[in-house]
Automatic annotation (TrEMBL), chain A:
The active site is at 83 (nucleophile), 178 (charge relay system), 180 (charge relay system). This is glutaminase. The lineage of its organism: Bacteria, Candidatus Gottesmaniibacteriota. Pfam families: SNO. It comes from Candidatus Gottesmanbacteria bacterium GW2011_GWA2_47_9. PANTHER family: PYRIDOXAL 5'-PHOSPHATE SYNTHASE SUBUNIT SNO (PTHR31559), PYRIDOXAL 5'-PHOSPHATE SYNTHASE SUBUNIT SNO1-RELATED (PTHR31559:SF0). It catalyses: L-glutamine + H2O = L-glutamate + NH4(+). GO terms for molecular function: glutaminase activity; lyase activity; transferase activity. L-glutamine binds at residues 55-57, 112, 138-139. NCBIfam families: PLP_synth_Pdx2 (TIGR03800). It is an enzyme of class 3 (hydrolase).
Length: 197, 292
């Protein structure tokens, strides 16, 4: 059988946190997954899924483009993005910097740094359709609109903070907060989706 | 209060480059190059050295101008122990306050009690003891000091290695269950035993640690990364070079690909003149010796 492999985009951000929580999630689910750091076009090959961590979406976009991996990323079957990663998945972004692009894969509109600066960062316990989680919002983006095909997984004060979309064989999962900082809940869910468990 | 959210923001900056900028134009160049944050200050450290006199927090108009120009986090420096400058910076909603030895210290005895602030602080260190004292005071992020404004990497390397050595010592003490010796270490470092124990168990600093002070080339940045820091601050190294935009981008690329010598080589091509740099022995002021 072909071995399972999930990549974490590793240029910058909370990469180690995602790698560790993905490994723990796989262990909880009793399956073997090789979790690899992705920094080159070549390392995108043979991935079952890609995780895009928290960080600065402007920086992530630039480094991906400089590496010439942008188009190849769009062809990955399963992608999970948190915070900056969610921005990267969105069709439309507000408050982008000049020339900033996203992968334009999910039918959502997202507003960068929409809560304000670091003094407005916060954390709270939220209910999601996957279960309860302590959600950490760091200079977080806000999802302003979701398309009809997008399924909402969690809300905070009426606003979408986590959602998923399936388009044919492609699957995308996005969270405005950082599930990787508090539990394996979202990573287990993502792994189950990727391997249809 | 433990600034957990500040520590989390620092986690999001890992692997990135934070650049010193003095105005909106510099800030734009930094953002375009791929910086993960900018540090607003009145003069870059090498100019502070030339100007002499007392170096203080930036004019708030400059900070606001920079905040308006970029979407990445904006940090700013206050003097060591100058808690009112820190209050001012917090009221301006800077994303991180750097209580920095690059400015002239305001208090020779005490650092700022950082637990009283909502916004996070980053502080410099030369060794593990300094790092842990700053963390105990509430710093959410640490940077090794190096020697700012020199374009000379030697002090940065010394301080990174000193922190690493301190942590290795603690790891060995923990492994050999020499808890009494660990208590002595806590006393030597003037911090709680719990913090020492936590560091020993983690095998690293309990907060994110960047390198600073003397990084002038892509290879310098990658050197610090390979020595184990989480990211780099670049001060005078960019805007005192002949082609800041190109050098800034090259340093970002080398930091992201710090283990890939081919990519570091490519990033290092045709960058023009690096900042001139200075021998440490000839310096009039050693900034790193401030606030220990």
């Amino acid at each position: 059988m072909k071995s399972r492999k999930i990549g974490v985009l590793a240029f910058h951000g909370d990469v180690i946190e995602h790698i560790e929580v993905t490994q723990r999630a796989a262990k909880n689910l009793h399956i073997d997954i090789e979790v690899v750091s992705v920094r080159t076009k070549e390392s995108l090959q043979n991935l079952d899924a890609l995780i895009i961590p928290g960080g600065e979406s402007t920086t992530l976009h630039k480094l991906c483009e400089r590496e010439g991996m942008w188009e190849k990323m769009k062809k990955i079957k399963n992608i999970f993005g948190t915070c900056a990663g969610a921005i990267m998945l969105a069709k439309v972004i507000h408050h982008k910097t000049l020339g900033q692009k996203t992968l334009e894969l999910m039918d959502i509109e997202i507003d960068r740094n929409a809560y304000g600066r670091q003094t407005e960062s916060f954390d709270k316990d939220v209910k999601t359709s996957l279960g309860n989680i302590h959600a950490v919002f760091i200079r977080a983006p806000r999802i302003k609109r979701v398309g009809k095909e997008v399924k909402i997984l969690a809300r905070n004060e009426g606003e979408t903070i986590a959602c998923e979309q399936k388009i044919g064989n492609y699957y995308y999962l996005a969270a405005c907060f950082h599930p990787e900082l508090s539990s394996t809940l979202f990573h287990e869910y993502f792994i189950k989706k990727v391997y249809q468990m | 209060m433990d600034n957990k959210l500040g520590k989390n923001l620092a986690q999001m900056l890992k692997g990135g480059v934070i650049m010193d900028v003095v105005n909106a134009e510099h800030a734009k160049i930094a953002e375009t190059a791929g910086a993960v944050a900018v540090m607003a200050l009145e003069r870059v450290p090498s100019d502070i050295r030339v100007a002499g006199g007392v170096a203080r927090m930036s004019d708030p108009t400059k900070i606001k101008e920079i905040q308006k120009t970029v979407t990445i986090p904006v940090m700013a420096k206050c003097r060591i122990g100058h808690f009112v400058e820190a209050q001012v910076l917090e009221s301006l909603e800077v994303d991180f306050v750097d209580e920095s030895e690059v400015l002239t210290p305001a208090d020779e005895e005490f650092h700022i009690d950082k637990t009283k602030f909502k916004g996070p602080f980053v502080c410099g260190c030369r060794d593990l003891g300094e790092a842990l004292r700053r963390i105990a005071e509430g710093a959410a992020m640490i940077r090794t000091k190096g020697e700012a404004g020199t374009g000379n990497i030697v002090e940065a390397v010394k301080h990174i290695r000193a922190v690493n050595r301190g942590i290795d010592e603690l790891k060995i003490l923990l492994l050999q269950k020499l808890f009494k010796k660990m208590k002595e270490k806590a006393k030597e470092y003037r911090v709680s035993y719990n913090l020492v124990l936590q560091t020993a168990k983690l095998g690293r600093l309990p907060v994110v640690n960047f390198a600073a002070g003397g990084i002038a080339t892509p290879a310098d940045a990658a050197l610090c990364m390979q020595l184990g820091v989480d990211g780099v601050f670049v001060g005078s190294g960019i805007f005192k070079s002949s082609d800041p935009a190109k050098r800034a981008r090259a340093i970002v690329d080398a930091t992201a690909h710090f283990n890939d010598s081919g990519k570091i080589a490519k990033a290092s091509e045709n960058l023009g003149e690096a900042m001139k740099g200075q021998e440490i022995a000839t310096l009039e002021t050693k900034m790193a010796a401030r606030g220990i």
